[in-house]
Amino acid sequence: MARAINFNAGPAALPLAALERAQRELLDVGSTGMSIMEHSHRGKTYEGVHNEAIALLRELLAIDDSYDVLLMQGGASAQFAIVPMNLLGAGQTADYVLTGAWSKKALKEAKVVGNAQLAGSTEQDGKFARIPKESELKLDPNAAYVHITSNNTIFGTQWHAFPDTGSVPLVADMSSDILWRPLDVSKFGLIYAGAQKNLGPSGVTVVIVKKSLVEAGRKDIPAIFQYRTHADANSLYNTPPTFGIYLLRNVLAHVKEAGGLVATEKRNRDKAALLYAAIDERADFYRCPVERDSRSVMNVVFTLPTPELEAEFVQKAQAQGMTGLKGHRSVGGVRVSIYNAAPREWIETLAQFMKTFGT
């Protein structure tokens, strides 16, 4: 079978090695005569996979014992509500920095829960072309937390240096760029990420949260929404998405075997440099609307001279085996998602196609 060149923004490409392992073990994991999907989440076989996934996350991101690592459900969209439900108490405010569609949705949900306020935005005419400078942010030193979205899949912007929030916990939605490079987790109070970009399939949400925030979290909300509930139960309070966590384990094991996050960052920067060079070399034809110091390494966006040419570009690329290039419906254009699992050869194929298209 010929594998598609998959540039989808999410659910996105998974490492072939992780999928092949799942294929080998689909009917029989650990010589048990059962698929992992058939095992009880209370049994030793699944528990081993579950704990290995958490241990690999801790190892790859150097997460120390002052943090809980939780495996939850509901995606980042659920965390838009669960974060303020846990961390935003009565009489408190939370700061939100807007850099794209998902951060706007996070702020909207937080306002349903409590007093959340805009601390900075780079929106112009409904679009975002850059990440704000720290000097532009209006942060409340007494805020319960500061929320950012580290990478913006729709507009192709990314934080390359995170703001210093002092003693106020920094909360980050890292759904679309977690694990793309080494990360100093100690700068954050809480990180959450839907798995379907760099971590695994949809259905799993990773939450990395300081134990002190878990302990101080609100208790006047249903148990299922309290971080302490999941921390106390090792993310086994209710039935978890066992197959999704199994594949998460496979992906993390592959990342480790492929050299860890130092090697991953090198590959990702090389891929992004190749693609942005292809855009900039024909700047009269391809235009990246993102300021250079805010360009995403994960989601590369650009436009062509007309919508008709963009549609033709996507159609002809599809005919050559490249899928997922149509920009988000809210902005149009072309979007190339080059997450960890996308090999350099895919970007080379696209860059070569871009050199000749429209000439």
Overall geometric form: globular
Which strand order do you get reading across the main beta sheet? 2-12-11-10-7-3-4
Largest sheet: 7 strands, mixed
Q: Please provide the ordered H/E string of secondary-structure elements.
A: EHHEHEHEEEEEEEEEHHHHEHEEH
Quick check: average pLDDT? 97
Structural class: alpha/beta
Helix amount, in percent?
25-40%
Q: What is the first-to-last residue Cα distance?
A: 32 Å
What's the number of helices?
Answer: 10
Radius of gyration: 21 Å
| Low-pLDDT runs | none
Short description:
The chain is of the alpha/beta class and 359 residues long.
What does the secondary structure layout of this molecule look like, with pairings?
Elements: E1 5-6, H1 16-25, H2 44-61, E2 67-72, H3 75-87, E3 93-98, H4 101-113, E4 115-121, E5 123-124, E6 127-128, E7 146-149, E8 151-152, E9 157-158, E10 170-173, E11 190-194, E12 205-210, H5 211-216, H6 227-232, H7 242-257, H8 260-280, E13 299-302, H9 307-319, E14 322-323, E15 334-337, H10 344-356
Parallel strand pairs: 1-14, 3-4, 3-7, 7-10, 10-11
Antiparallel strand pairs: 2-12, 5-6, 8-9, 11-12, 13-15
Helix pairs in contact: 1-7, 2-7, 3-4, 8-10
Q: What can you tell me about this protein's structure?
A:
The protein has helices at residues 16-25, 44-61, 75-87, 101-113, 211-216, 227-232, 242-257, 260-280, 307-319, 344-356, and strands spanning 5-6, 67-72, 93-98, 115-121, 123-124, 127-128, 146-149, 151-152, 157-158, 170-173, 190-194, 205-210, 299-302, 322-323, 334-337. The protein is 36% helix and 16% strand. By secondary structure, it is an alpha/beta fold. A seven-stranded mixed beta sheet has the order 2-12-11-10-7-3-4, with helices on both faces. Strands 1-14 form a two-stranded parallel sheet.
